[in-house]
């Protein structure tokens, strides 16, 4: 009796794809229901924002502080913990871009070390050509998404973090070692 690795691999890939499609459909339904609830009665929800530091006040430490101050405005469960890491600096002709990663998780008593984390990547742009008294420009993206968010323009949704973590956990469950 021989074991057909190719058939087994194809079956594993097919199951993973079907599971991913189901997850995407569930997420889209959930997002749509959130949109319908949040825009009921033509009320537009306010997006969070803070007063950002000026270009001349910028430093790595100040960048971490303002990111902390900004994410403190996000409405989320208090069980979420995060850490902010400085990643790198990119030098361009007209600005410098400082990249940070904010890693989120929900540790519990039963699982103090989380099975998965969700990352949000922040970029702080310090202009070389604008007056140094103007504020820095900030934008951020959630892991696994290409949508670029700007403070004051889009409202944080806790479900974005939950979706990243649940998709990672589900992907890990599909793989056996």
Automatic annotation (TrEMBL):
One of its GO terms (molecular function) is protein kinase A regulatory subunit binding. One of its GO terms (cellular component) is cAMP-dependent protein kinase complex. InterPro entries: AKAP (IPR053084), AKAP_28 (IPR025663). It comes from the Eukaryota. This is A-kinase anchor protein 14. It comes from Ciona savignyi (Pacific transparent sea squirt).
């Amino acid at each position: 009796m021989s074991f057909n690795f190719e058939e087994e691999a194809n079956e594993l890939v097919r199951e993973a794809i079907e599971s991913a499609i189901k997850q995407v459909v569930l997420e889209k339904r959930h997002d749509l229901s959130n949109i319908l609830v949040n825009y009921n009665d033509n009320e537009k929800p306010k997006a969070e924002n803070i007063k950002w530091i000026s270009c001349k006040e910028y430093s790595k430490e100040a960048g971490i502080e303002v990111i902390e101050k900004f994410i403190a405005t996000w409405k989320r469960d208090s069980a979420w913990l995060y850490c902010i890491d400085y990643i790198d600096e990119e030098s361009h002709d007209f600005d410098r871009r400082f990249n940070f990663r904010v890693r989120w998780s929900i540790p519990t008593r039963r699982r103090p070390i989380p099975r998965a984390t969700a990352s949000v990547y922040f970029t702080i742009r310090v202009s070389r050509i604008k007056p140094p008294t103007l504020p820095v420009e900030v934008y951020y993206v959630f892991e696994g998404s290409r949508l670029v968010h700007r403070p004051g323009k889009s409202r944080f949704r806790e479900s974005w973090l939950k979706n990243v973590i649940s998709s990672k956990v589900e992907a890990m469950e599909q793989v056996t070692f």
